[in-house]
Amino acid sequence: MEGFSITLDALSVDFDGRFQLRDIDWTIRTGEHWLITGTNGSGKSALAATLAGDGTVESGTLSGLPGRIALVSYERQAELIAAERRKDDADILDVISEGTPVSEIIDATPVDGGSDDEPMDRQLAQELVDTLGLRPLMGRAFRKLSTGETRKVMLIRALASRPQLLVLDEPFDGLDHDSLHWLQGYLQTLSETVPMVLVLNRFDECPDFITDVAYTDDGQLTHRVQRSDEAAFAELSHLLHLQTTDLALPPADTAANLPPLDPAEPLVRLTGATIRYPDNTVFEDLDWTIEPSVHWQVTGPNGSGKTCLLSLITGDHPQCYVNDIRVFGFQRGSGESIWQIKQYIGYVSTALQWEYRVGTSLRNVIISGFFDSIGLYSKSSDQQKAIADEWLALLGMADQPNTPFTELSFGEQRLVLIARAMVKHPPLLILDEPCLGLDDINRQLVLALIERICQASETTVLYVNHREQDRIRGIDNHLALTGDQPS
Amino acid sequence: MANYFNTLPLREQLEQLGKCRFMHLDEFEDGVEALRGKKMVVIGCGAQGLNQGLNLRDSGLDVSYALREAAISEQRQSWKNATENGFTVGTYDELLPTADVVLNLTPDKQHTSVVETIMPMMKKDACLSYSHGFNIVEEGMQIRDDITVIMVAPKCPGSEVRAEYVRGFGVPTLIAVHEDNDPNGEGLALAKAYAVGTGGHKAGVLMSSFIAEVKSDLMGEQTILCGMLQTGSLLCFDKMIEEGVDPAYASKLIQYGWETVTEALKYGGVTNMMDRLSNPAKIRAFELSEELKDIMRPLYNKHQDDIMTGRFSETMMADWANDDVELLGWRADTAETPYEQTEAGDMEISEQEYFDNGILMVAMVKAGVELAFETMTAAGIIADSAYYESLHETPLIANTIARKKLYEMNATISDTAEYGCYLYNHACVPLLADFMKGIKSDVIGKGLDLDDTAVDNARLIEVNEAIRSHPVEAIGAELRGYMADMKRIV
What we know:
Chain A is of the alpha/beta class. Helices cover 32% and strands 23% of the residues of chain A. In chain A, the strands form four sheets. Chain A has a six-stranded mixed beta sheet, with helices on both faces. Chain A has a five-stranded parallel beta sheet with strand order 15-16-17-12-18, sandwiched between helices. Chain A has a four-stranded antiparallel beta sheet with strand order 11-10-13-14, covered by helices on one side. In chain A, strand 8 (212-217) and strand 9 (220-226) form a beta hairpin. In chain A, helix 11 (362-371) runs parallel beside helix 13 (410-422). The mean pLDDT of chain A is 85. Chain B has helices spanning 4-7, 10-17, 47-58, 69-73, 77-84, 92-95, 111-118, 134-137, 158-166, 187-197, 200-203, 210-242, 247-275, 279-309, 311-321, 325-335, 338-341, 351-356, 359-378, 383-392, 394-412, 415-431, 433-437, 457-468, 471-485, and strands at residues 20-23, 39-43, 62-67, 88-91, 101-104, 127-130, 148-154, 173-177, 205-208. The A-B interface holds A 277-278, 315-316, 318-322, 335-340, 355, 358-360, 364, 368, 371-379 and B 32, 36-37, 54, 57-62, 80, 84-87, 166-169, 202, 486-490.
């Protein structure tokens, strides 16, 4: 492999006004094989195509590209098919066009940035035709092939073009089992001589030779993670899983009979709420009503009383007994127990995570959400266990129900605690700074999970955060605590 | 007032001492119903008073705090504790006449004066609750006939009572009804509801009697719990210094060693604690503990006898009447001991090293636990009680020593426990003087220096058999089993 270094420096690229890549900083060095991943529409295909010269550079620089770059992508495939169709349409003669036969398409392989004195490897091309079973199709018109067959043609063209950089956008998509298996093995061998950039939607297809992962989000390259950094790699994998999995939110426990709420009554009503200590007043005279299905975001600087406000609702603040608070139909201080209140609430906070120092399994942590306890002290039903396992599957942790909670990373623990809070489908989910203390990947992970919850359940979400950028789609109401009360 | 226990015939004494039963969860299905809507007034707003009140209120019960007028007008700590937590606070006059249940959570020493003050104010058929039976059993306090007298005693410090409740659990709790004062037969229902209100039913409730609680509690705390650990600390430290061990290391080995070795005790009894030693070390520890038990048995018997006859409480109450001169003097002496004066070093000591270099400490714990258990059961206290008041609580005191050493440990525990602890220590140190002459650093401070850990099979079997067949191990396995059924996850 020749030494090289491809550098994208503050690169912004426009794709016909349809899509922009913004401010990309990226370096690909000798010996590296990259995987580009991200959600649909995040820009991973655009980034791959940029390496092959697609798009219009608006600012920044792209340097160090080798001479021959081969790109296989849906876009290239579609272009080729569209070109064939145009040929047909353009034919003004009164004959039926059969279109270009496959053999010609393969022979006419253009080499991106290549020169005529380094033609394609025809012998290899013919070998690949046999290997991929295209021999019987060589005389057929290219545009009459199936999607999988055209994809194979595209691969042959790319592999036979003596590439110095091979860019493959979802190469495994649409291939039958045998071809897929063959291609994986072939790329593994080829990786010893040819640097590669792969675009894949699914992490579990990531080939062994990949050394680095680039993660795109909203037209930007947001994370670069080395494969050898196992923790970061696992987190990226979780993030992608959560964003792309088809799994639905697991159901509630049908045997649990949570006393029904009066739908006409607000979930929470605070009247003139005040928290006062001898030396300071945290807030006073706050009126706030939370109606069912109306999500709220609460913001405010440190010390403005966000957590105090929540703990009035959850019953964790002792002054809830000297305030006019009505929650879930209970006037506080009228003989109800806090467990009657907590059964309607799912709750996640950093403080809870610090409290949750129990050496129990992930499954038990999630089940403990049915009992609102830290640790599990009650016998759980088979259904509850099954539901907990479904949540673990949603989180991409299906294979570790018995892993001790304390062995997870901080971010993974947070995900499990959110599942614990949601496991009973509570009427009210309270998320107190759920992203606090998390790095960027984990923040996105948590937000992705919360977004799924907001979209897919009857739960009313109360979300506390002081980071403006951590917004969640679907949360439209806003309560701002100023810190210099009264509000 | 006369010692209540001594007024009973022997048959009755034995029956009361033998009361102790682990209650099953299904006995608490009525929850807090027996207390619902009743006005509960707490006297004393220290750690137990405040935290029990927080739990009871969160369980849906009506809780307020009665404080002395001076505590309110001077806004003392007890007033701050109660008001900052949003409780109604009032004087005795304001709150007691309407109280259905009065929770006396003041220190033992104040019980007589508190109860004498509040009793005339309490309404007819009300309930008076204690968390320790000393006032009734040892001081013979007579409670008005119409008043129901119960005891609810969480077996943990107040802060833990609250922390476990918030987690959705509780702490093991002992309840009892004073049978002479149960005019309407509702004492047990009230005590159970109270235990549910503090969360205790989830962690296990022992149904006992005032007498069994007092006589076993006093015995446990002054011998194995506080006394043995104090004496052991002082003797082991002095020996290590004499043997040339680095004082900072010696101090650390003792301060954290008790906690480490008794942690093993908590999980798997004496057997597990001994199993943490190598085979030669285990045999040495066993032999030392047998020797210790022979030497100390008369002392344990004397403590139990003095507790049973009321001689202990008489002596202590005389000191109360004398402004605690003895207690405070002995407390000051503790601060002056070489161990207490030496800061623990910052060297690393691994968990296993505490066992390997603390063979004598393990032997002392084993001897103390077994002797206290044997003495209590021989005196008619049932095995369940004896287990809780000896083995079960030893790790709690060891934890206090790890955090605060001896002086603060003594200041933290009840005055009653502290007074008894000093009596034990004053007798035990000279008693072990000869024994300690034969001790070298191989069993305390440095560990056995062996090239080969081989032991004789027959001897090992014999020692293991002796350890495992002690009666404290059988009851311990059973009671720890109940706890495990409750799925306590720490």
